[in-house]
Amino acid sequence: SVVVAGSVGAISEVIGDLQRAAGATERLFSLLSVESEIRAPAAPKPLPSPAAGALSFDNVRFHYPSRPDWAALEGFSLDVRPGERVALVGPSGAGKSTVFQLLLRYYDPQAGSVRLDGVDVRDADPVDVRRRLGLVAQDPVVFSANAWENIRYGRPDASDAEVRAAAEAAHALDFLDALPEGFGTFLGEKGVRLSGGQRQRLAIARAILRDPPVLLLDEATSALDAESERMVQDALDRLMHGRTTLIVAHRLATVLNADRIVVMDKGRVVETGTHGELVAQGGLYARLAALQFDRADGVA
Ligand code: ATP
Question: Going by C-beta distance under 8 Å and a sequence separation of 6 or more, which residues neighbour residue 136?
């Protein structure tokens, strides 16, 4: 078998890693030390085509390489049907983001399996797997490049008209056109700095262009102003439409709109149901919801 980093799509590896590393020293550290550990199979299994977008975690146990005595996921099982919208909720450290990391195959579990459309992700080409997964991170990375390039990263062969259409669907067209050189304006560290809501809409445009069957959404915790919030939410609703979506949820509206809420604690699923069902149960979710959603949304 072949070591993935350095051999397969170096740029996508780096950008994926940057996305993960953004803003988290802990993760930056792990990027430097362990990211090249996964191996691509010598004869990868093709993922079924067309993609359905079914996800399946079966009795997964996983510990991070730096913490061999401590499992981030333990007995984690979850099936997500094509097109289903599942909200992951749980206390900090429950393992929600770790679920994304295993799907994206930044790491492999020590026991159990992670399947995408029925294929164990360890048996597939990691590039194929990641092509089917669209990640919208909490604080998306803006590359040091112009807006065309920033969005086109989602699909390098897209025409200008397609890039603009994606920006429009993501409510990013107006603010991008208003930049000094429009879409040709240099963004990122040494260019025009975007607001949090603008960065999110840029990332949504990227994902719309890419059109993946599965969306992994890490919902922002930081508050945006009401207008920006409304536009981000509307853009996300369009993006999620017709796709399997796994959301690390922080907002009441998100859990209310989910087909199913999956409550995690200490690396496993402890409750599952709708908002109403889970509140009525009076368990962990009910306690979290009372703490988390009251203030954030001014409702419930
Ligand atoms: P939060 O809501 O705070 O983001 P979470 O439910 O997403 O939490 P994870 O980020 O999945 O939780 O983390 C699960 C556990 O694994 C935590 O205890 C965390 O400290 C640990 N962890 C996460 N990333 C790493 C890493 N790269 N190396 C070592 N431990 C890690």
Answer: 200, 203, 204, 207, 215, 216, 217, 218, 236, 239
